[in-house]
């Protein structure tokens, strides 16, 4: 059984004169090792209260041979401390906080969240991703070192008219909504930092620039190009800050990786986190995998996003577009170009790279716990290199938002898991969902099926599971009292031995209950077989559904029995029943899964999906293939409706007369007791009618699979 809630890189915070640097993220080269923070040893085992700026530090290698790290730091006015916590604290990097804990060496043990309090929240990213932004590129060297970039090369790389320059890249991927201008300095000679200390490097670089007549504070961003960063990565960027650091780059426009570094780090300056991949082993996604994204995170998993790995672009001289969710976070993708899908239908989406369109470029599907983003990519503009990778352009890309602390990065889903395990990261190159395949989310909320694509648009079918109808009326209660709260009416009892019985057909059943501080325990049996004890205690009041799956495809009876027992923390042994349900999937009339001939689409607000198909032509058919043990044909009845013949798998199921004195939509014609396998139902228009009817037309509103 399963209980589900029902829902309505490597640096600490550093201080520079006049600025605060927080939560930097880094890109590591294969074979590199991350630099370590130098923390002072200040004694052991004494209680302390320390205030400062909190920073969550991600040390993530682009080579999967190096384990991802998440570390937490507190930068006080005196020094940097490491925080030992039970998990990520509920605050964004850059927040001013005060912690109570035990100091051992350079580590403060903050055992519980109540020992941690925010005194000032983190501010928004310091650079808005709109308009023309200015960046000061400060070049520095020290004794015995040089930079590869000449002045002319760096100018072309950063601000030139070449479509591969940083300014051109951002103008393209923002659909013309922002770009970069700026100044590059000569190579100033500074003292070698001789270790991983980006704060010292930034201080010395900005002091040299000021001495050379440049005022760093007059620019919206500062990029420091140095011979070596000593931290194991080629680039760093503050999440939501002004500063980026590049190791001996900014010259080679032919290298996808060289172009990727500054584009990626500036993405961090805009407040973006990485575009991850959800790594679920041999499957695309599972409930347990999605419920724990921190443990199943491929940090740079999205191969087709500049905030991901960009592995294919590295070798092809390209830098990928931002994925749809990142474009939305930046404010570049909005309005009619973002379509939120909430009804079953067939939808079209045009390439993400297309400028000047008002048509949808991303489909957004919300479930009770997650949001999914469906996009279509083509080798256009900055994504031209994708022409060599058809798996990225003849499919649809799907990513999901998953709870991951303060990290807002989307998780790409891999629909070809473990197809390429020869090289780290390459398994994500063919991740998108192919045409003709289907994906159902782990919450069983929707199914998406890509139907076709032609380079100009992709067509996908989205089918939503019918909203659960919780049934109390068919359940037999003994001694339960009617109660209600903000979530609706339910039955409750704390009398030991009270039972409720619900009979149903199908392979699964769900029991809607209430969890809370005054809830107790119940035993569950199905067909007399013990299914265990359910403890409905929780520290907060909420609705919950208890699922029982894997039953035989037949009739069953579930019995809930009040035990008169409770959790030690509960104040009562009460058990609640809000109803029972077995899952059903609805496919609406406009779905590409239905096959018609000579039927007409009609808009009707009373239809289940807002439209239905109609035909009066004798011999016209509607066919629907499904897998299940039953199916309902939802149709319309009324004075103007005629007769149809129904068959399932070629077996005649009889004639249906749709005449009724009054109009009725979503009228179910039910067929049950089928074997648990694939079937096809066919509705054939007879061109005949009841003598009282005024017409012989027939409608298809939807099919509901059981």
Low-confidence stretches: 1-43, 57-69
Helix content: under 10%
- Biggest pleated-sheet summary: 8 strands, mixed
Secondary-structure class: mainly beta
Beta-strand content: 35-45%
Q: How many domain modules?
A: 5
Number of strands: 50
Mean pLDDT: 84
Radius of gyration based on Cα positions: 30 Å
Shape: flat
What is the CA–CA distance across the termini?
20 Å
**How many helical stretches?**
7
Provide a brief overview of the structure.
With 706 residues, this protein is mainly β.
Question: How is this structure best described in words?
Answer:
The protein is mainly beta. It has five domains: 2-120, Nucleic acid-binding proteins (OB fold (Dihydrolipoamide Acetyltransferase, E2P)); 131-269, Collagenase (Catalytic Domain); 276-464, no CATH class; 475-581, Galactose-binding domain-like (Jelly Rolls), CATH 2.60.120; 585-705, Jelly Rolls. It is 9% helix and 40% strand. It is built from seven helices and 50 strands. Strands 16, 17, 18, 20, 21, 22, 23 and 24 form an eight-stranded mixed sheet that branches. The protein has a six-stranded mixed sheet with strand order 4-14-15-13-11-12, sandwiched between helices. A five-stranded mixed β-barrel has the order 5-6-7-9-8. A hairpin with a 2-residue loop joins strand 33 and strand 34. The longest helix is centred in the first third of the chain and has 14 residues, at 198-211. It is flat. Mean pLDDT is 84; it is low at 1-43 and 57-69.
């Amino acid at each position: 059984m399963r209980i589900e809630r029902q829902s309505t890189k490597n640096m600490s915070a550093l201080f520079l004169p006049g600025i605060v640097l927080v939560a930097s993220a880094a890109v590591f080269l294969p074979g590199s090792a991350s630099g370590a923070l130098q923390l002072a040893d200040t004694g052991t085992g004494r209680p302390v209260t320390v205030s400062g700026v909190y920073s969550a530090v991600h040390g993530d290698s682009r080579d999967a041979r190096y384990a991802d790290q998440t570390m937490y730091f507190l930068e006080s006015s005196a020094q940097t401390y490491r925080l030992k916590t039970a998990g990520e604290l509920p605050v964004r990097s850059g927040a001013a906080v005060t912690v109570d804990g035990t100091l051992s060496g350079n580590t403060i043990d903050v055992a519980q969240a109540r020992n941690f309090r925010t005194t000032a929240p983190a501010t928004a990213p310091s650079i808005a991703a709109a308009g023309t932004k200015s960046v000061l590129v400060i070049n520095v060297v020290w004794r015995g070192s040089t930079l590869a970039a000449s002045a002319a090369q760096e100018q072309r790389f950063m601000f030139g008219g070449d479509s591969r320059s940083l300014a051109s890249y951002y103008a393209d991927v923002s659909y013309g909504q922002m770009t970069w201008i700026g100044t590059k300095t000569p190579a100033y000679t500074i003292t070698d930092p001789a270790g991983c200390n980006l704060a010292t490097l930034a201080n010395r670089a900005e002091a040299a620039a000021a001495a050379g007549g440049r005022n760093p504070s007059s620019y919206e961003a500062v990029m420091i190009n140095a011979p070596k960063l000593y931290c194991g990565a080629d680039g760093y960027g503050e999440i939501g800050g002004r500063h980026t650091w590049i190791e001996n780059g900014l010259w080679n426009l032919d290298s996808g990786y060289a172009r990727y570094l500054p584009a990626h780090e500036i993405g961090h300056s805009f407040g973006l986190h990485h575009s991850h991949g959800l790594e679920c082993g041999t499957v695309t996604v599972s409930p347990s995998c999605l419920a724990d994204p921190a443990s199943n995170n491929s940090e740079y998993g999205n191969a087709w996003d500049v905030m991901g790995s960009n592995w294919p672009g590295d070798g092809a001289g390209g830098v990928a577009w931002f994925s749809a969710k990142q474009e939305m976070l930046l404010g570049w993708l909005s309005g009619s170009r973002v379509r939120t899908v909430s009804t079953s239908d067939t939808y079209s989406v045009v390439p993400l790279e297309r400028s000047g369109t008002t048509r949808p470029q991303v489909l957004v599907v919300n479930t009770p716990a997650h949001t999914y983003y469906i996009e279509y990519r083509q080798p256009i503009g900055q994504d031209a290199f994708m022409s060599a990778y058809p798996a990225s352009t003849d499919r649809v890309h799907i990513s999901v938002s998953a709870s991951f602390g303060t990290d807002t990065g989307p998780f790409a889903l891999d629909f070809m898991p473990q197809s390429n395990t020869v090289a780290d990261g390459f398994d994500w190159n063919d991740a998108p969902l192919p045409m003709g395949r289907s994906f159902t989310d782990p919450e069983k909320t929707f199914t998406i099926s890509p139907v076709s694509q032609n380079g100009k648009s992709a067509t996908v079918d989205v089918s939503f599971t019918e909203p659960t109808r919780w049934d109390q009326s068919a359940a037999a209660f003994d001694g339960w009292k009617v109660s209600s709260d903000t979530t609706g009416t339910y039955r409750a009892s704390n009398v030991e031995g009270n039972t409720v019985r619900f009979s149903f057909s199908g392979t699964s059943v769900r029991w809607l209950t209430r969890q809370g501080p005054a809830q107790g325990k119940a035993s569950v049996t199905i067909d007399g077989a013990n299914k265990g004890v359910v403890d409905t205690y929780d520290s907060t009041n909420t609705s919950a559904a208890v699922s029982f799956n894997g039953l035989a495809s037949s009739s069953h009876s579930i019995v809930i029995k009040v035990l008169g027992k409770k959790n030690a923390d509960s104040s009562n042994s009460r058990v609640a029943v809000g109803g029972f349900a077995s899952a059903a999937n609805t496919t609406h009339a406009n779905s590409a899964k239905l096959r018609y001939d000579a039927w007409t689409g009609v808009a009707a607000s009373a239809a289940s999906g807002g439209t239905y198909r109609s035909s009066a032509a004798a011999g016209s058919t509607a066919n629907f293939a499904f897998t299940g043990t039953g199916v309902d044909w939802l149709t319309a009845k009324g004075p103007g409706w005629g007769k149809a013949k129904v068959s399932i798998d070629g077996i005649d199921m009889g004639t249906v007369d749709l005449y009724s004195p009054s109009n009725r939509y979503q009228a179910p014609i039910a067929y049950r007791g089928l074997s648990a396998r694939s079937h096809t139902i066919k509705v054939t228009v007879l061109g005949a009618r009841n003598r009282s009817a005024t017409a012989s037309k027939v409608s298809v509103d939807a099919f509901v699979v059981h």
